[in-house]
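Hello,

Following up on my earlier ticket. Below are the two sequence lines again, exactly as submitted.
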Amino acid sequence: MNKVSQAGKGELVFAGALFLVSLVVFWDTHGLVLPTNNTVVSPRTFPYVVASLLMIASIGIAIEVFRGRAATPEGTNSDFPFQKADLKTMLIIITAIGIHTFLLEKIGYIIAATISFWGVAYAFGAKKIIKIGIFAFFFSSLVFFSFTNLLDIQLPNWIIEDLISKVGS
Amino acid sequence: MVDNFEYLLDGFAAAFIFSNLIYGFIGTFLGTLVGVLPGIGPALAIGLLLPITLTVQPTQALIMFAAIYYGAMYGGSTTSILLNTPGESGSVITAVEGNKMARAGRAGAALATAAIGSFVAGTIATLLLAMAAPELAEIALTVQPAGFLALIITAFATVGTLLGSSRIRGILSLAVGLTVGLVGADLQSGSLRLTFGNRAAIDGIETVTVIVALFALGEILYLASRFRHEKWKVIPVGGRAMMNKRDFKRSWKPWLRGTAIGFPLGVIPAGGSEVPTFLSYAVENNLAKGENKREFGNGAIEGVAGPEAANNANAAGALVPLLALGLPTSATAAVVLVAFQSYSIQPGPLLFMTNPELVWALIASLFIGNTLLLILNLPFIRFWVKLLYIPRPYLYAGIATFALLGAYALNNSIFDLQIALAVGVVGYLFRRFAVPITPMVIGVILGPLAELYYKRALQISQGDHGVLLDGPLTKSLYIMLILLIFIPPIYSHLRKNGKRNSKANIDGR
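Thanks for your patience. The regenerated structure is below:
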């Protein structure tokens, strides 16, 4: 057996996580409340098939890694080998989207979208953080205004949105 | 046949109304605009633009979709040629030769052959679509649920095993998609699956959310994980997007060959646009002679013309099973299906009977969109190229903003946003571990459908599983499937053995 590389270890964790998901599907399906009326096909059949497929595939990936055939990520080759993932940049983006999700219906679309825009731009190395903040605010306001007024798509309102709608009408 | 032609003329009449042409124009513009942005392929472009079409009439929305569809494909090829960052698997080959041409100062010719080739292939393929889809739909009316199940399983197998670096990763992607498709209330019994007490999950997970998150958020996270190591260089377009006589002479045959390869491979579920574009490239490489041959690998125009035509013809071909059977076989077709469903239109054999005017308006719009694209885009290439100079922080922040908006606006639900974030992380992991994404999208969409047909088949037979193998269609599909799964490994095994034997012979001599 080949020695598993650092990247291969990451892939094993990935396969392991999906294996756990397949166990969860088995467990959830097993606990399904069956309908009282008689059905020809139980609602359990299909999920069991899917869970088995997921389980087999995740084991298959693990075997591939142990055989020394770890994945070659998209856009990499021997000239551009995969570098260690830049976790800090990724975390900033995930946090920004998380805050957007958490705040959207509490403080309205514009501030929530300003935060996520600013966060992603900052993560991708934007230096002038105040300028980006101002741009993000105007961009979000423009998106809000055009979607609610021109396309009739409702987005969460708060004080700022009310103000902008008044100015617009 | 005559009926179909009349329907098509009616379709043109519907599409040619001034207001509808305006929608076609807007669609072409938006499709190209979004498609040019690096990292955005046609599937994501349609997904992102879905909220915009929610408020217009179905016919107008279809016209917009057709225009967006071709616009996004065209925009994608521009990006691959000038920036070498293909937005989707179908443009990978275009990037190989196209980017080399651009580096050699022939960007204009590369862009022109891509655009005109797309137009030629798109027009021929749409014509074939108009002829094939109604015929296929008529046959499909006689297909039993067991036959549909067999078709879906074939699609699963081909999409799952033909894409990506290894079969097992394709199957894994499919399995994850099927799992996502399980979430929610079972259609028949109402049993709640994988909802974990969350009320918002009862309706299941929104497909558009999955697509937008997988393609946009997943891509952004992946780029973020490695952006400090990446270089990004736009190659300026010198002169105009034009071909000279010699380029034209070298291009027209590859266009036609690409169309011939791309269309049939789109109709049968052969796993998206990777296979036909690679195949077309290989054919052109083999057929090239002399000086042209030496250019391959350093920017041969045939290597752009053929694959681009194959890619476009393939996309139109994928609409045949979508319209006639209701089965999407590529990520882009899957999004189009979702777009239809948002208007409560269910593609499938019945659609040609219940809503012929919609289908034919769509097909007519494909022609018009394709033509508008050629007229509008080649002269304005400089405008589109400017989009490539948007600084990356602004570009990705903008894409993220629209992705989040698209995920939320469909149902106004925070749950969808939470799912989007989770699926975005899955999309990152898939890219990181070379797991192809399309099988997952197909799994999410076709999984519930597979279960539905399975149940219907067994209800008709009252629980007898023999029905699943009944009839010539199911039998031949499953036999084909077994061959598809077992022949390649046996072949490669034999070849390995053969090599070993011949080596042993040489050594033993």
